[in-house]
Design brief:
- The structure is a single chain.
- The chain is an alpha/beta fold.
- The protein has two domains: about 170 residues, Peroxisomal Thiolase, Chain A, domain 1, CATH 3.40.47; about 140 residues, Peroxisomal Thiolase, Chain A, domain 1.
- The strands form four sheets. A five-stranded mixed sheet has the order 1-7-6-4-5, sandwiched between helices. A four-stranded mixed sheet has the order 8-13-12-11, with helices on both faces.
- The longest helix has 22 residues.
- The two termini are about 20 Å apart.
- The relative contact order is 0.19.
- The structure holds oxa(dethia)-CoA.
- Oxa(dethia)-CoA (UT7) binds next to helix 2, helix 6, helix 7 and strand 12.
């Protein structure tokens, strides 16, 4: 059995930080409202001319450096984004060029905020199928470019950034019994779980695109509806991931959730009866960075020493489509 080991991670945030107070000078909002309803205090904003591929490249370089792997060894780049540099070609190919490599496959995955979980599942399956040995999985977004800065209901929520992980095929990793204690499980991605319900695609969308309006468009969201579905779908998919591995919430060392809203994260932690100390939180500093939020949070917790080799890490996300998913990995 070939398994995907997560051998490195990295992240990149643009240098400009936008605070709630600065936003309150632009739209009818307050720091108190944003903090109370979302938990967000600041978000990063890409500079003029700074592209999604630039953010992705920096995160990829950091991930490769932490893995001690040369870019020339990478035979697969899967980049999750809803804010590509261009309609085509894939932003993954721009990152590949910036990394100075030309081998293997490079393509984008579009599942909005669930994009990183989707991309991780795709790369994991390429590795399990023997089609890739060393994969870069990147979540990179410049949501600031598709926000309606007059719409206080959405413009306060999102930020820009990128995160990446390096996966390496590990041959012959022994299968632990399904009922083995969590610390006896092999390292690597244990399972991924993806879902979509396209009936809800107009709950969270961009009102533009090449085949509809020929404009880029702006993000539109029915916030309360998204919130309602998020808590239901995320609670279901984390339970599904645990059940598939015959594990309980007590076996989880770290929950690394999509960082959309502190209230959604608190709900899932409560539902799992997981102490909040076991949840990696970056929503306060990063806001919602869509496909970048989970790998950004992973990188924060790995670098500050919380996530260590052997830890059981549960990742989850939910986004436009709706799409949602979870991934369980032993670090
Ligand atoms: O990443 C993909 C997944 N996305 C999400 O998970 C987002 C899910 N949704 C949410 O996080 C929340 O629904 C929001 C944070 C977007 C909104 O919070 P809410 O508690 O659901 O607020 P609401 O939309 O029900 O609005 C309550 C009030 C409204 O005023 P009235 O009608 O009660 O007078 C809004 O107009 O808050 C008002 N409001 C604001 N006030 C100050 C909405 N946005 C703002 C704002 N500042 N920025």
């Amino acid at each position: 059995m070939t398994r995907s080991l997560i051998v490195g991670c990295g992240a990149y945030l643009p240098s400009q930080v936008l605070t709630n107070h600065e936003l309150a000078a632009r739209v009818d909002t307050t720091d108190e409202w944003i903090v109370e309803r979302t938990g967000i205090r600041t978000r990063h904003i890409a500079a003029d001319g700074e592209l999604t591929s630039d953010l992705g490249e920096q995160a990829a370089r950091a991930a490769l450096a932490s893995a001690g792997i040369d870019a020339r060894q990478v035979d697969l780049i899967v980049l999750a984004t809803a804010t590509p540099d261009r309609t085509f070609p894939a932003t993954a190919t721009a990152v590949q060029a910036k990394l100075g490599t030309r081998q293997g496959a490079a393509f984008d995955v579009q599942a909005v905020c669930s994009g990183f979980i989707y991309a991780l599942a795709v790369a994991d399956n390429f590795i399990k199928a023997g089609q890739s040995r060393t994969a870069l999985v990147i979540g990179a977004e410049t949501f600031s470019r598709i926000l309606d800065w007059q719409d206080r209901g959405t413009c306060v929520l999102f930020g820009d950034g990128a995160g990446a992980v390096v996966l390496r095929a590990e041959n012959g990793a022994c299968e632990a019994a399904a009922t083995a204690p969590s610390n006896a499980r092999p390292r690597g991605i244990l399972s991924t779980h993806l879902h979509a319900d396209g009936r809800q695609h107009d709950m969270l969308y961009v009102d533009g695109g090449p085949s509809s309006t020929q404009t880029t468009g702006h993000l539109r969201m029915k916030g309360q509806e998204v919130f309602r579905h998020a808590v239901i779908n995320l609670a279901q998919v984390v339970e599904e991931a645990l059940a598939a591995n015959h594990l309980g919430a007590a076996d989880i060392d770290w929950l690394v959730p999509h960082q959309a809203n502190r209230r959604i994260i608190d709900y899932i932690a409560r539902k799992l009866a997981l102490p909040i100390e076991k949840v990696v939180l970056t929503v306060e500093q990063h806001g919602n960075t869509s496909a970048a939020s989970v790998p950004l949070a992973l990188d924060v917790a790995v670098r500050d020493g919380r996530i260590k080799q052997g830890d059981m890490v549960l990742m989850e996300a939910m986004g436009g489509g709706f799409t949602w998913g979870a991934a369980l990995a032993r670090w």
